[in-house]
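Re: weekly structure request thread

Next one in the queue (279 aa):
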Amino acid sequence: MREALNIIALLVSNGACDAVTLDWSKLRYQHTAAIRSVLMEKYSPAMANKMLCALRRTLKEAWRLGLMTIEEYSRAADIPGVRGKSLLKGRALDASEISALWDNCLKDNSNLGARDAALLAVLTVGLRRSEVTHLDLSDFKSRSRSLTIREAKGENERIVYLPPLGVQVVQDWLVIRGKEPGPLFYPLDKGQKIIHRRMSEQGILRALRRLGERAKVDTFTPHDFRRTFIGNLLDAGVDIVTVQKLAGHASIDTTSKYDRRLESAKKRAIDLLDMPYGS
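Done, posted below.
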């Protein structure tokens, strides 16, 4: 949101102000309408709407602080969202790619291999990268095979479950990590010794890039595991409400965007057409 507000501030001030220095209370409808027009041209509908949301909320705070009248706020914030849908970014990993990643981790008997295998275990059950960084040891229950996700979007807790292999590799990592309270995942130094601080999102990204290079898997992101997890569940016939709960989506509409069956149905429809090639 800070980045969105910085972009808008630079736009309306011709590069003179950022989100902190711009006087947001001076914006009027003619300004916000112009901002919307520019965002529509430069960004996807989802990104433009996110930025407009940041703008509206900032204007609302200006009104709450008495810096704008209710009329000024209402008019400035009365801009519609941007219509349209964009395709989800990223890709789904196929079974052979996930198998190659697992094989590479399980063959690596080092501390790094154990840590990366445990990371792979929790990412393949649909966790966001930010959720992985906030996992604590106390969130993992081996007997019930569960992970309690406490730092999630919307601040709602949820429980996800690991397959037996996932539980085993997390337990293998805990032998190295130790049983003291604190973050579930620690970074390692060059000598593969534990650094006692919470692993960062960037650290997770670097770990996956290194793993992908070793396993000779095409470029992927942490979110691609989440995309694969949700898509695979829907392909397997799991009802969408259950998938929504496992993914931690606030809206079932968000979950439906990951439904690859819709694309398969379109392909089958095209295959029904009788194309008179060569006639």
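The chain has two domains: 2-77, 95-262. Residues 2-77 form one domain.
Next request, please.
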